[in-house]
Amino acid sequence: MPTPLGRLDRAAIGYLTLPLLIFVVSWFEWWAAVPLLACSLFALRPLVEPLPAAGVGSQLTRLQLTAAIVAASAWTLCGGAAHFLFANADWFVRDAVLHDLVESPWPVGYGLWDGRETLLRAPVAFYLPAALAGKALGLPAAHWCMGLWTAMGTSLFLLQVLSLLPSRPKWVAVAITVVVLFSGFDIVGNIINTGPRFLQHWNIAKHLEWWAGTYQYSSMTTQLFWVPNHALGGWLLMGLMARHARFSALDCMLPLLLVAAALWSPLSAVGVLPFAAWKAYRTVFVERRWVLLHPRVWLPALVVGSMTVAYLILDPSRIPKGLSVGGGDLADTVMALLSQTQFFLLEAGIIGFAILAIRRSAEIVIALVVLALLPLAHLGPGNDLVMRASIPSLAVLTIGACLALSRQCVEASALRKKVVLVSFLAIGAVTPVQEFARAAILPSWPVNLQATLIGTNCGAYPAHYVARLGGQITEHFLKSPHALPVGSTDKRACENPAIDLMWQGGLLSD
Predict the structure, then answer these.
(1) pLDDT tens digits for range 140-197
(2) Which residues contact 17 (CB under 8 A, 6 or more apart)?
(3) Half-sphere exposure in the Cβ direction for 223 (13 Å, CA)
(4) Is residue 232 within 8 Å of 149, Cβ to Cβ?
(5) Which of 65, 244, 336, 392 could form a cystine bridge with 271, CB 3.0-4.6 A?
């Protein structure tokens, strides 16, 4: 029998899958929603099995619980959730998506565009619980709920990391510090690539992570402050796999959890796939657990996943994509590869190798391979593939750094390796420190409670949020979209307050 799941695991799985259950009930016609919901609940049946007498979920102490909740709440607050403090520019559009989900019946549409009906086609998992609360309590309450929802997910991830370490106060402090401040060497990349210009215009609150030009690997704090909707699903799924490296009830639920993660962030879910494949390989071929090949494990997820993914890839032709190398002469290709090698080493490679020097781990190796390969392709208007698919691998490096530092060592060489790793983490910490500085220096800005997604885009229909319907099979299963009035689309409607404040603070360059 597989090892049952502890309370922390069940809480994380519930957090990940609740939006999926809301989605299948609300987006699909009843005759499609009923079997989809039944498949989802069947796959989630280990959640109602008896708790283990002394399972992994019982290892958390009051100190760990308190520290995780307090740290996660403060971390989330500084990120701008609920707008108590400065919220970064991405929240402008995120607030509009929440507005549309609260004010419109589901699924949300925006009327005709190019003569075709439109649909909000986006990974909506992050928003759905808060939007559901907002329908009952109003839009202002929905923003409060979204802040609370973010803090809950962040708390669960911190608890996952803490559960892997000794429960002594020292390691609680070390783990939370490492997670919050984990980052690549953005400060080094800026100095190497732009040198005197960077130093001349340096500001303690400036965003450092676009130094490579066309791609970035975001620090853990940057992920939470800018894109918690993409980060939390990847973090929690990697936390679950870290807690259940060997065969457990998690293995049988992993296919559906991947579907749930895709509704949080399709590209982050893509980044999880190599780790899920490695876990499945070890379970089946090393531990000889053949139950994973049984249709009752993968068939429910296949049914739900086919409908969920079909929704997420509606009308993909307008989304830019391609390879980042090739297509030019040999010299351009070589320079691009050298630039990407520099980017990989500074953002992940050096820290990853330092972790491996202390603690060998197949997952760290997989993370480094993924992070080395991702810059070779691009997808999305801001090269989203690199930024979002890297989230699970960066979470693995973060957890790996915590485990490496907590590893007992008596040899002088092992201690020196830890000193080197701590030095590397300190260099990387400059990036999240500057994210916190911006939250402290710039004022908060009020939510525009009337702004719609189309209004915040000056009347444009962004390709990564809006799909045009017309002949896709998926449309027969989805409810008809409700056309939401797009509201004001003049220049004032799409002026991002966060960008204005950053310009005024000298944080953006011409």
Answers:
(1) 999 999 999 999 999 999 999 999 999 999 999 999 999 999 999 999 999 998 878 8
(2) 40, 44, 256, 257, 260
(3) 34
(4) no
(5) 392
Please report how many Cα atoms fall inside a 13 Å half-sphere around the Cα of residue 281, on the Cβ side: 8
Distance (Å) of CA 496 to CA 384, 438, 456: 20, 16, 8
Task: Read off the amino acid at residue 165.
Answer: L
5 within 8 A of 13, measured Cβ to Cβ? yes
Query: Is the bond into 266 cis (omega within 30 degrees of 0)?
Result: no
Phi, psi of 61 (to 5 degrees): -100, 170
What are the structure tokens assigned to 249, written together? 């009830």
- Distance, CA of 80 to CA of 13 (rounded, Å): 25
Residue 448 dihedral angles phi and psi, to the nearest 5°: -85, 105
CA distances from 133 to 77, 98, 136, 323, 391 (A): 20, 11, 5, 42, 28
* Rounded Cα–Cα distance for residues 353 and 365 (Å): 9
CA distance 366 to 353: 12
Rg of the chain over all Cα atoms, to the nearest angstrom: 23
Q: Rounded to 5 degrees, what are φ and ψ at 271? A: -65, -20
Query: Structure tokens of 228?
Result: 């918690």
User: What are the boundaries of each domain within the chain?
Assistant: 173-226+326-441
Q: Supply the pTM of this predicted model.
A: 0.95
Strands (E), 421-486: 466-468, 482-483
Q: What share of the chain is helix, strand, coil (3-state, %, to 5)?
A: 65, 5, 30
β 116-120/321-323 pair status: unpaired
Question: Cα dihedral angle (446, 448, 449, 452), rounded to 10 degrees?
Answer: -150
How many angstroms separate the CA atoms of 243 and 221, rounded? 22
Supply φ then ψ for residue 119, to 5 degrees. -145, 140
Give the start-end residues of each E strand in 82-200. 108-109, 112-113, 116-120
Residue 120 tokens read as 């909000």
Asked if residues 24 and 37 have their Cβ atoms less than 8 Å apart, the reply is: yes
At 105, the amino acid letter reads P
* Strand stretches in 149-290, DSSP E: none
Pairwise CA distance, residues 382 & 333, whole Å:
21
Pair of tokens at residue 274: 């190599």
- pLDDT for 55 equals 47
